[in-house]
Amino acid sequence: MRTSDQGRQGPAAMQNGAGRRQTENNRSAGRGGKKKGNRLRLFVQLCFTALTNGYAAGFANTTIYAGDLKHFCVPGLSCYSCPGAFGACPLGSLQAVLGSRNFNFSFYIVGFLMAVGALMGRFVCGWLCPFGLVQDLLYRIPFVKKFRRLPGDRWLRYLKYVILVGFVIVLPMTVVDIIGQGSPWFCKYICPSGTLMAGIPLVAGDPGLQEAAGGLFLWKVAVLAVLVLLSVVVYRPFCRYLCPLGAMYGVFNPVSLCRLQVDREICTKCGVCQKTCGMDIPVWEKPASMECIRCGDCVKACPHGAIRLTGPADLIRRGGAVGNAGTGGAVESSAGSVGDRH
């Protein structure tokens, strides 16, 4: 009887063992793919930053590029006053139009933001934003204890929407000077990218600006310093809590062409995706999260190949993801749960 039981149990045990070995192989391959994918993303970030902020003469002479390219916006944060910037920042341009006494609306800027959002969503944040690159590099600093989130993370994430509505839209339109001209409140009082890439280089290279710099400049430097320190211990604090451009693109995450999909027939809800995610998103539950920056780490870390990115982000799967081929069945698209902000 014992021999018969062992005979019956043998194939099942062998199958379970083979399944466990396959899962371990997938995990190992996923870790290798993640390294390749991270290198690919870093390469794209560096290239795009150099392409959009590579006006070397501006840094050398402390001048601002004023050619025809400045009439066009770039997808990520890129301060107009940065000595190296070839293009214009969409947030700065939007505030300039909303605060202008001559214009009330810009079809070009709003259309640009909607087109980029519909095409990529927050893929821009993960791959194309120079200040996102700065935060990624800071978080790579070793020998420092890392934290998954800040205290009050759930509520702090709503700050970027408050800043979007208040500092980017309402204040530039309503608080105006004697001639009816508004100010770019976000750029003027908060934007750390502008301080790092424009304010500090210009002040450092111009004695006249050094004499004129006062309390406002010190405030902006303090904001930048706090975010730099936080970026060493928490993944992308500016993107999580303060960036209004990310808030705007996040609204398009559920409907953008670049979106996450989870195959429910393969997914085991093991939680590896959330452990891998720098933004601390339970991807198996919320593939449509407005917080997701489409970095692709979860795609490559999933031991079952249950997650994939569609649209322009297919290059991530070619850059190291494994196990995604032939994953048919019930697929949950990120088109669901539009109101999900986590």
Q: How would you portray this structure in words?
A:
The protein is mainly alpha-helical and 342 residues long. The chain is built from 17 helices and three strands. The chain has helices at residues 2-52, 56-61, 90-98, 107-120, 123-127, 130-139, 153-156, 159-174, 185-189, 192-205, 207-212, 215-233, 237-241, 244-250, 272-276, 297-301, 314-318, and strands at residues 259-263, 307-310, 331-333. The protein has a three-stranded antiparallel beta sheet with strand order 2-1-3. The longest helix has 51 residues, at 2-52. It is globular, with a radius of gyration of 23 Å.
Rg (C-alpha, Å):
23 Å
Low-confidence stretches: 1-23, 26-30, 320-342
Whole-number mean pLDDT: 85
Shape: globular
Report how far the terminal alpha carbons are from each other: 55 Å
Number of helices: 17
User: How many E-type strands?
Assistant: 3
Strand content: under 5%
Q: Which structural class fits the helix and strand makeup?
A: mainly alpha
Strand order of the largest sheet: 2-1-3
The helix/strand order is: HHHHHHHHHHHHHHEHHEHE
Integer tally of domains: 2
| Major sheet description | 3 strands, antiparallel
Work out the helicity level.
Answer: 40-55%
Short description:
The protein is mainly α and 342 residues long. It has helices at residues 2-52, 56-61, 90-98, 107-120, 123-127, 130-139, 153-156, 159-174, 185-189, 192-205, 207-212, 215-233, 237-241, 244-250, 272-276, 297-301, 314-318, and strands spanning 259-263, 307-310, 331-333. It is built from 17 helices and three strands.
